[in-house]
């Protein structure tokens, strides 16, 4: 290959480098609106340092764009960048596992896209993927089709966005967390600018309004306001993230997902990289009989295994029936595959462990109140026993729910494990992808005759747990799930498992844990 084969990024990316100046500009405008245009020396210095910092970043970003080159050869993708500190990266085309095309609002306004080429290795993100930021929209689509293993057009829609799914958006609680982040960031901005919150007009008016209300209303109104604002934030985030959502089957070998309103995303996933799916049911979503669906596939890191990951997500928050239907279609099984799924319950000892954990957590919370109440004032003692009347039932209810969520079994060619209470997760793991097993026992588990099995796979988080099963039942599950993998050792294991496990099953890694 000659030097002429090397290509530059689109020159319109230089305009994108100027977007680094948006944060200091917004900070300045916000400060001017709060102070009415009256800035003291501390505020000027703070805003000036913020602006200078982002200006340096913008210049560095622009220089990086000017020195970036890439080329696509018959057997690899090459990228080189840097002026003073040069970097050269190459990805063999045979090792490419996914080609994602994304665009934030600035990229979309200029008709640009970001192409991320991933090898699927379990290493840091900057090492397992090569990013071309940015190329034209048409070139990005051609590049995705050129590098994807299957270049055929989508022919079957597995799922499309439904308006009725919007009612599940406020039940994810991430909107409330977002409100907390915004409030915290605003408070830090005021503190950095040495601005007294009492001097901010709308904050002063809000505080005056609250102080004029009865105590019960002064507590309920802010909480209600945060909940409503969080629900609205979740709804807006849902629309922006999942707008124009469409999941399609591309022949028999791949899945393609498109979504996004302002920031668009196109994800290509080969079925041969799929190792299973995860159905997540956060508490509020579960109460509304809703769920989320994520893929377990090679090329996705641990962070992408979470139910909140947008990279592994196959379905937005929707009904549990819809999640089951799409999971069945993604796995290539017949309709109704997950209907009436029954899993083996965990032993009663697992319930006792969770009840103990719940009561211990309540005791840890109440202990400081009791100690300070004895030393200082009886008021704290009254707070302790009153709060215990609420916390103990909640802890017991959570323990029972966590126990009822436990389950494991086999369904066709899949190992199924379920666990969790705040966010119950049901994992269907392709047994052919299991490469090893680990048996973990804490001291309390050994006394109760329980163990936690971990099925090791080269995908997702790397290992998926079957929690608190009877040791003999767990070893039987290992034998049935992966026949022949450890057969000679499991057959020699006595039924009562009276021998130390590391002697009776030497092929299974054993991890001793402290209580």
Architecture overview:
Helices cover 43% and strands 26% of the residues. It is an alpha+beta fold. The strands form four sheets. The protein has a seven-stranded antiparallel β-sheet with strand order 7-6-5-11-10-9-8, sandwiched between helices.
Defining key terms:
515 residues, alpha+beta, 7-stranded antiparallel beta sheet, 6-stranded antiparallel beta sheet, 17 helices
Characterize this entry briefly:
43% of the residues lie in helices and 26% in strands. The protein has 515 residues and is an alpha+beta fold.
Query: Share of helix among residues?
Result: 40-55%
Per DSSP, what share of the residues sits in E-state strands of 2 or more residues? Answer: 25-35%
Please give the number of β-strands.
21
First-last Cα distance: 61 Å
Task: Outline the biggest β-sheet.
Answer: 7 strands, antiparallel
**Cα gyration radius (Å):** 28 Å
Structural class: alpha+beta
Looking at the structure, what is the overall shape?
globular
The total of helices stands at: 17
Query: Averaged pLDDT, please?
Result: 81
Poorly predicted regions are 492-515
Strand order of the largest sheet: 7-6-5-11-10-9-8
Write the layout of secondary structure elements.
Elements: E1 7-8, H1 13-17, H2 22-35, H3 41-66, E2 69-72, E3 76-81, E4 87-92, E5 98-103, H4 105-109, E6 112-118, H5 125-128, E7 129-136, H6 137-147, E8 156-160, H7 174-192, H8 201-211, H9 215-242, E9 246-250, E10 254-259, E11 264-270, E12 274-282, H10 283-287, E13 290-297, E14 313-319, H11 320-331, H12 348-375, H13 378-405, E15 407-411, E16 414-419, E17 423-430, E18 434-442, H14 443-448, E19 450-457, E20 463-470, H15 471-481, H16 487-490, H17 501-504, E21 510-513
Parallel strand pairs: 18-21
Antiparallel strand pairs: 1-2, 2-3, 3-4, 5-6, 5-11, 6-7, 8-9, 9-10, 10-11, 12-13, 12-17, 13-14, 15-16, 16-17, 18-19, 19-20
Helix pairs in contact: 2-3, 7-9, 12-13
